[in-house]
Amino acid sequence: MVTEINPGLAAGLLALIGLLIGLIVAAIYFRRAVAVTRTNLALSQSLAEQRGETLTALRLQLDESKNQTITLDAEKGHAERQL
User: Is 0.85 surpassed by the pTM of this model?
Assistant: First the structure.
């Protein structure tokens, strides 16, 4: 006994298989895109942290320079008053 497959059923099964393959490919692509985004986010956070550390160091140097300028101005004023 030979069983024939209904052409409509075969077409439906092929469409379903195509849809499933498409969904799997889309899921793989989405997963890779998310992984790249996470990597880029981690890199951006690391760079931002480094910039923050650099800014903190520069602020400390600026404060130190301001204090030196104030000290020098005070010494200059004292020296001028003694003349």
Answer: no
